[in-house]
């Protein structure tokens, strides 16, 4: 897995408000992952351990009993609800096209991302 460049976060609206040095620190703690079409990234009902941002491709968000809810594109993010509220995943997310995501663990989310949602 290759490192994530801070410049890749400039198109993530929620993260673009972070000062440059803080954004670079966050990027250094993120893990990049290429996701094949059809692969599920998170599963509804499972514990949430990571926060994700979409760097490339499209991913489908679905919920049991409700079907497809939305499509995520570069610049979108997911996984924050489970981490912020300490509840199981509220939806499943699956790659529709080849995709690239960057993710961080709960501690990194709490330190860098959670304060942005509070603003």
Which keywords apply here?
3 helices, 33% strand, 4-stranded antiparallel beta sheet, globular, alpha+beta, 119 residues
Q: What structural class is derived from the secondary structure elements?
A: alpha+beta
Could you tell me how far the N terminus lies from the C terminus, measured between alpha carbons in angstroms? 32 Å
Give a short account of the largest sheet. Answer: 4 strands, antiparallel
How much strand? Answer: 25-35%
Tally of helical segments: 3
What general form does the structure show? globular
Rg over CA atoms, rounded to whole Å, is: 14 Å
Low-confidence stretches: none
Number of strands: 8
Helix and strand sequence: HEEEEEEHEEH
Q: Can you list the strand order of the major beta sheet? A: 1-8-3-6
- Determine the fraction of residues in helical runs and give it as a percent range: 10-25%
Q: Report mean pLDDT, rounded to a whole number.
A: 91
Explain what the structure shows.
The protein has 119 residues and is of the alpha+beta class. 24% of the residues lie in helices and 33% in strands. It is globular. The model has no long low-confidence stretch (mean pLDDT 91).
Characterize this entry briefly.
This protein has 119 residues and is of the alpha+beta class. Helices cover 24% and strands 33% of the residues.
Layout of strands and helices, then pairs:
Layout: H1 20-29, E1 31-35, E2 40-42, E3 50-56, E4 59-63, E5 67-72, E6 77-78, H2 80-85, E7 92-95, E8 99-105, H3 106-118
Antiparallel strand pairs: 1-8, 2-7, 3-6, 3-8, 4-5, 4-7
